[in-house]
Amino acid sequence: MKFILTNLALLLLLITLIAISKPAIADSANDSNTQTNESGSNTNITGGYESTTTTTYEDGATNSTTSTSTTTSSSTGSNIPVNSANSPSYSSMSQDVCSMGVSGSISTLGFGASVGKHIRDLNCERIKLSKVLYDYGMKVAAVSILCQDSRVHAAMAMSGTPCPWNGKIGRDAQEMWDKYPELRPDYEDYLIKAEAIAKIDAELLEIEKQEEAKRIQKEQEELAKKIEEEKKKLATLKEQEEVDEEIDIIIIDTVPINIHK
Q: Is residue 130 a contact partner of residue 137, using CB atoms and an 8 Å limit?
């Protein structure tokens, strides 16, 4: 038990010494080292120390040496970060407004700018107006305002339900659109499609002409073949007739004729 208590006391003493002791840091600029010799040569200690050496000879001479180190740092403008540029916030402030906000910003060293604006969404406005007209019972007007969009106009024409024309609907409206195609909202696309259709029709017509020419040529060849066969048959019959005539003549010459008195 006494041995254990002794060890505990030593351990507590060791812990206390460690807690109150200060660490020694080498190569510190705050340390002051002084070295004095009566005679001989001394070596200065570098690395941030401030050292003083005093040498005394018989004639009483004294030599003092001081060493100081200085550190200088510099920075260029390219390493300096520029300020951030924040774009302005744009909001429609309502779900029933057909517009959207667009903003942008730029920032450089010593200069920054940010801009923003609202842009109208015309397609959104067209849809909302069409819904309001339909709710009021104006169905033809609701379709008419949608037909101002080139995509809707083309889709209505392709589906066989052309867009209204000054109160006319159906086939009458289609006749007016065909008469005045320049007034179509999809006029440019209409011209492109019309040119493509005309080109394809011309190619098909040319193919049809070639096939018709081949058919006529084939019929002529077959007719010529039949005529040739008929000629051969006629020639064969003629030869047969000539052979028959010769046989008749031979028979007549060989058969005796009796004359009765």
A: no
Which residues pair with residue 52 across a beta bridge? 34
Q: Which residues contact 128 (CB under 8 A, 6 or more apart)?
A: 96, 98
Buried-exposed string 144-177: b where 16+ CB fall within 10 A, e elsewhere? bbbbebeebbbebbeeeebbbbeeeeeeebbeeb
Q: What pLDDT score does 98 carry?
A: 84
Tell whether the model's pLDDT for residue 64 goes beyond 60: no
Handedness of CA 38, 44, 49, 51 (dihedral sign): positive
Q: Please indicate whether residue 93 or residue 105 has the higher confidence score (pLDDT).
A: 105
3-state secondary structure of 58: coil
Residue 17, judged by CB atoms within 10 A of its CB (0-12, 13-18, 19+), counts as exposed
Task: Name the one residue in this structure whose structure tokens are 């397609």.
Answer: 123
| Tokens encoding 120 | 């109208």
CA distances from 220 to 86, 90, 226, 231, 232 (A): 86, 81, 10, 16, 18
Summarize the confidence of residues 92-117 as an average pLDDT. Answer: 74
pLDDT of 226-236, one tens digit each?
Answer: 888 888 888 88
Domain boundaries, the chain: 123-185
Given a cut of 50, is residue 155 above it in pLDDT? yes
| Strands of the chain, DSSP E | 32-37, 50-55, 99-108, 111-120
Burial (Cβ within 10 Å: 0-12, 13-18, ≥19) of residue 89: exposed
